[in-house]
Amino acid sequence: MEPQLVVADESVQLLQITDMHLFEDGERTLLSVNTEQSFYAVIEDIIKKRHKFDAIVATGDISQDHSIASYEKFIHGIKPLEKPCYWLPGNHDFIPSMGAVLPHPQIQDSTHFLAGDYWQVILLDSQVQGLPHGFLDAQQLEFLDNKLAEHSQRHSLVLLHHNPVTIGSAWLDQHRLQKAKQLWEVLDRHSNVRTVLSGHVHQEFESERHGVRILATPSTCIQFKVNSNEFSLDNLSPGWRSLTLHKDGRVESQVYRLPDGSFVPDFDAQGY
Question: Which helix (DSSP H) or strand (DSSP E) does residue 98 occupy?
């Protein structure tokens, strides 16, 4: 039986958080930003704003140091949100450590679920262990193809960590999803794909390809400067995204951020 997310009405409300880069040591920082504190500040702001959502999706780079403790901190952080969380690995994650904290009642160990009566969500693993770029192997592509065909009557949201198109920043685009053409060949075979949602680029991004909306979302810690060919940080604050998946296939989405000046990074950094 397929995993099913029960929702309150005909639309599905999702909350996306991404690129937390948490450490076992709560004092450690990434480019002078304490990633644990920024993550918890985002969670607190979500609660304060009283966002309504049916589930959380976490699109990778949850950990920075591969530790089991970093994933435990993530679980502790999302507990006050009191909703199920679906996660997938990014290039910085360590899948054995992710598995070590399971089973857990809030973390849904599933790569696919039916959301309400009209949607399905497919989570892909684009990690190439030890390398920053992404890749979808034949098994992942077949899984995607099969789910799109099996539930052809449902609108589909596809999640992965790596950006499947270039975003206009040369240094980041070299670390995008490699051989993305293979992904788009699968998606182009199906008429029910509405949106592809990713993390990885630490910035807000939106594009469209063949009628499919492409979204990327700010990190809960440091932000990368838009349209920068060389490594460059932005002074924008940590953020997250809300998504409303409507019965007719429309996706209504908005990015939110902490107040200006929150968690300012080290602008003299040359990389990370």
Answer: helix 95-100
Contacts 24+ apart (CB under 8 A), 100-104: 100/68, 100/71, 101/68, 101/71, 101/72, 101/75, 104/75
Among 238, 245, 201, which residue's Cα sits nearest to residue 222? 238
Number of Cβ atoms within 10 Å of the Cβ of 25:
12
Listed in sequence order, the residues at least 6 apart from 231 whose beta carbon sits closer than 8 Å to its beta carbon are 171, 224, 269, 270, 271
Confidence class for position 246, pLDDT limits 50, 70, 90: very high
DSSP type of residue 81? G
Q: pLDDT for 1-51, tens place per residue?
A: 789 999 988 999 999 999 999 999 999 999 999 999 999 999 999 999 998
Give domain limits for the chain: 10-257
Q: Find how far residue 68's CA is from the centre of its chain.
A: 20
pLDDT above 80 (res 146):
yes
Would you say domain 10-257 falls under CATH 3.60.21.10? Answer: yes
Q: What is the 3-state secondary structure (H, E, C) of 187-243?
A: HHCCCCEEEEEECCCCCCEEEEECCEEEEECCCCCCCECCCCCCCCECCCCCEEEEE
**Cβ atoms within 10 A of the Cβ of 145, count?**
15
Query: Over the stretch 153-196, which tens digit does the pLDDT of each residue have?
Result: 999 999 999 999 999 999 999 999 999 999 999 999 999 999 99
